[in-house]
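Please, structure for the following, as tokens.
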Amino acid sequence: QVQLRESGGGVVQAGESLRLSCAASGRTVSNYAVGWFRRAPGKERVIVGYIARATTSRWYEDSVKGRFTISRDNAKNTVILQMNDLKPEDTATYYCAATPKYGGSLSPADFASWGQGTQVTVSS
């Protein structure tokens, strides 16, 4: 099973950018679809987006489209979440998760391997 660890969180002001990394170990992350999720204080965890296995297909939640980009760095066995034009409502703990499932239509229940999360705080 793949192990995941997020990094790159921090405190930024609205309009700034952050780059989160999801480093994989134990398996080659290119053999997995990888999703990014977030949990805001007092709210349930929701999916932000994911990159499919074996393709460049990506899906994003509406509120982050055009601001967030998911990409792979296969040389580093890592998946990146680039977050631009951050807003206070993006404040949350961000998690990455992986699934070996193929396809461009994945649900949160498909993701079985999870990281511990990294905190992102956006001040206004």
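The longest strand covers residues 18-25. The chain has no helices and eleven strands.
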